[in-house]
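Can't paste images in this forum, so I'm doing it all in text. The chain is below; anyone willing to post the predicted structure tokens underneath?
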Amino acid sequence: MDRRSVLINGVDVRLKELIQQTCEQLNVEIIDMEIMPDHVHLLMENPAYTSQRCPICGSVHHADDRNYTCQCGFHIHRDLLGAMNICNSTEFVGNRQTA
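Text version of the structure:
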């Protein structure tokens, strides 16, 4: 069964706008998006808990004030921890990113 090409003639542009608006409202970063005539490829990063997950041992717990200290001894400012975890959540494969 062939897929129908329904995401054409401006529908693709509007769908991309709606996805971008929704992700902005939900504070979700779009890493990659490709609208095809019959489907959508969407890779996104949800920032929830990125400043609560230890990159060393993987445990999750709340940071005290602005500093994060893990039971394994790792410590860092929680904003840096969040940025670190987001950067480490994707890898490059060829010329595209994948989770």
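The CA atoms of residues 25 and 36 lie 24 Å apart. The chain is about 25% helix and 25% strand.
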